[in-house]
Structures
1.
Amino acid sequence: MSFFSALIVAVLFSVGVYLLLQRTLSRIILGLALMGHSANLLLMVVGGRAGKAPIVGAFGPEDTVADPLPQALALTAIVISFGVISFLLAIAYRSWVLTQNDEVEDDVEDARIAQLGEAEMRRWWSRPR
Amino acid sequence: MVEQAKMSVLLVLPIVLPLLAAALAIIAYNHRTLQRIVAVGALIAVVADSAFLLVAVERDGVQSVQMGAWPAPLGITLVVDMFSALMLVISMVTVLSVLIYAIGQPGVDHDQPVFHPVYLVMTAGVALSFTTGDLFNLFVAYEITLAASYVLITLGGRREQIRSGMTYIIINLLASTLFVVGIAWVYAATGTVNMADLAVKIAQLPSGTQTALSMFLLVVFGIKAAIFPLFFWLPDSYPTARMPVTAVFAGLLTKVGVYSIIRTQTLLFPQNRPSTILLVCAGLTMAIGVLGAIAQNDMKRILSFHIVSQIGYMILGLGLFSVAGVAGTVFFIFHQIPVKTALFLATGLVEQSTGSTALSKVGGMIRRTPLVAGLFLLAALSLAGIPPFSGFVGKLGIIQAGFGAGEYAIVGVSLVVSLLTLFSMIKIWNGVFLGTPEDPTLRLASATSEERLSTPVLMRGATVALVGVTLAIALFAGTLFDLSERAAQGLLDPSAYIQQVLG
Amino acid sequence: MTPRRSVILDLCVQAEFHTLLLLSLYLLFAGHNQPGGGFAGGLVASCAFGLRYVAGGSSALSRSISIPATTFLGVGMLFAILTGCVSLLTGHEFLESAIFSADLMVLGTVKTSSVLFFDIGVYLVVLGMALLLLEQLGGADGTDPDEVQP
């Protein structure tokens, strides 16, 4: 059980990283969502083995009860990533409306600085000696 | 008993008041005046409250509150020690002045009904990250701050903002995911997420596990704090937002990351201090940040690279792991928050009156807005660490500590970086405040005439107030350095902290 | 393109709408000791409004609810935070919960806790959030009115 869960965590995370490295925004977002799922699943894995509902005294001795804390943490993390990813989707949509393009754009100012730098280099090498 | 009851109110207010005000501001969605009154009122109260907290901590030591009255390792603890109290006070003052500046600037909150609620939520998140004593709650605090910052950075929805906001959101979401993974590992190893409890339990782990956890958390917070290999997102995304937003991000958000690095590395991993790694990262952060700044030709971008460069100094002081070094770092962060923000606010005044911050488009501002020039000069000199100003005291503290520890190489790097910082401040000064725009084809109509330029009085007022704060830091440097030293002692010997939380 | 409405879907949604809202309220009040709670209840209520939107577009959505979504958000936040503050004012810690029970004659004894008020806040926040999403992202033909042309 634990081994397969760990395997799924690993697979989800690596698929997420692969998608994150693409240039298309929708893939990046999918990648982040998968990595989020992987992290939440990891929280469940570290909680130890499954057990009964964690209400003290209600369902038998304490050692047959699941660890409630990772579940609470995972729940919080899920809600948070749900909110952030939906905001990200809204932004991606906005970006698509503005540019009609799903790709991540380059930074204009950065490109300009790089050009300036290259020009400077060329001047330096072709200076009269 | 009465004392404890008072403390539970005082400690909770910096988080609850902004949230309460945010709720009211959302209800008053289309009543801008009401929103402004609520927001400013709440932040003034929070500033007063954090001052009380600082006094209380100064008098009685570390204070803590158990939320919901659940006992320590189970519930969420809010803790404030000297370090968090100092950070809380200065960041709330900064947040308040930026809010006033934003109210003064036309077009920031005016057609954006969500500005005030989101700004207040961000404030609550920052306050929570400084006061929480629980690793997972720190994650929640980060997410509150970040979610609000995502909205703020893309507010207005211009194409440039969307592009860079996207980078910002994606990189921070990645860091948050890694943070969850880190928390999962910490929980797997120890079975707790309360930081005081962790401090006790991590010490019993095998040293390899400790190193793995410590490095993982360092990477997570390193992304947020923009230290050396992980800073690339910052100079790209910060400059495109509206100026008050950029200013408060520049002043605060990366420092929250630095705060978390300091807190986790000192409290959680006392026997496993990655001194060398931190020092190397610090040197590279300083050097690459300042070199990046020199290559830029826009005020906002120059200053954004300087954020990175100054983060290096903070990491340097921490990397020494001596009381003197950490005290220098604490003082340096305390000075850096208002100074950096003030620099951006002054830049915002230039942008407001001329419409640009490109060095090639603006010139001769000293004749036309002498006040702005003066404000910028004071803050810039302080940033560069020129003697009477506050930056000098902080850098001196760190450098002395470096000499004390025999780390001459890194001290040398920091001195060179300091000179380069001064150089790039002079570059801005010459480009924007002296001379005329160099490229006549790029000259803006408003940037060439000789008439005096004026800016809204609230914007100027807020900038003056913040520069005043930085001067006050220089004036009371002695007292503040004593407090920083006590904060550093508390950080390096966290027994009082652990004692207070676990009882 | 004029939106075409499906009669069957329309009628089904009208029949389901109130049932779903009731279910969401049940989940909200059942929440403390049983599965449910403010978040789940809020999601179910959002689904009810989401169905309205699917069946009739944003005009149907705005006809079915007249309070602005932001008010839901704000009141919800206010509820949640004030619940915490009440315990603070009565000399307890922030967010400390208390259990009340009342004897309602015929209906029997009702037991509830202050957590319920927090849950109501969460319910309203989730609902407000979902309504805001539908309002902002689901304009008539995928465009929102203040859109900037590329």
Note: Chain C touches chain A through nine residues (CB under 8 Å).
2.
Amino acid sequence: MPNDPRSRTVGRPGPDRSGEEGRRLPARAGPRVRAAVRLQLSFPGTALSVRKVLQTVRTGLEPLALDPEETGTIELVLAEALNNVVEHAYPPEARGWITLNCHIAPDGLHVSIRDKGRPMPDGGPPLGQTAPLPETLDTLPEGGFGWFLIRDLSRDIRYSRQDDTNELCFRINLHRAEATAPGDPAP
Amino acid sequence: MQLTMRKLNGVDVVGVLAERIDAAVAIRFKDEVRAITSQSRGRVVLDLSRVDFIDSSGLGAIVAAMKQLDGQAALDLAGLQPNVDRVFRLTRMDTVFAIHATAETACPTHAQ
């Protein structure tokens, strides 16, 4: 089956995302049928841009009618992954651009993040094991939680470096998400 | 980032009047908590009831804020919204901080 024509890109305030609404509504729209959402955003690698992009993503995901916990998970994982690029791939004197792609599939939200900054050290994403809780207050960790959260809340993490571009891909399970993919035969 | 300070039944309560403690404000947050609690002795309660998002940078800033309190002081948390509460639980930082439902329950009157 072809891709659902209601797939759309939001983010850039594109003029035309109307006109296709209402077309090809699933005949058996039940709670497990999700709207098709596809987001592509490019933005400067700064913490404030990341904050704005997260707002744009929240808005873009509204057609999915996710529950607040799922939305929170997506926002948190994206925040951690994007802020890692801001803080580690791009040094302060050489800011660059980040491109974020998200789309919904039967097995959850698929995410790709690309940048042209420094490669990951050791050629791959950190393991992000839980920091052991030290006995004394003074040595409590103030950092290192980011990769732990990404690994805990996402699946299928892959990192690649091609030419001068880093790409990090992962998937976020949406737990009601035996979401029927657009075009799938109805159950 | 705006913080408020009030006394509730003798306890210093720092209110965070922002919806997010994230990477964009984490360092400023830590510095401002230090400034506003510089005279605090004993227990300080951080009222997070207006905060609906925190990331690992914000979590690190709260840990740092606790560590920079005077040695006699402790930092408790109150009013965690669900997505904030979850970050503390996932990272097990809920075992480090005393967490209260609200600032009021964190600071009961002496009569109770």
Note: The helical segments of chain B are 26-36, 56-67, 82-90, 103-106.
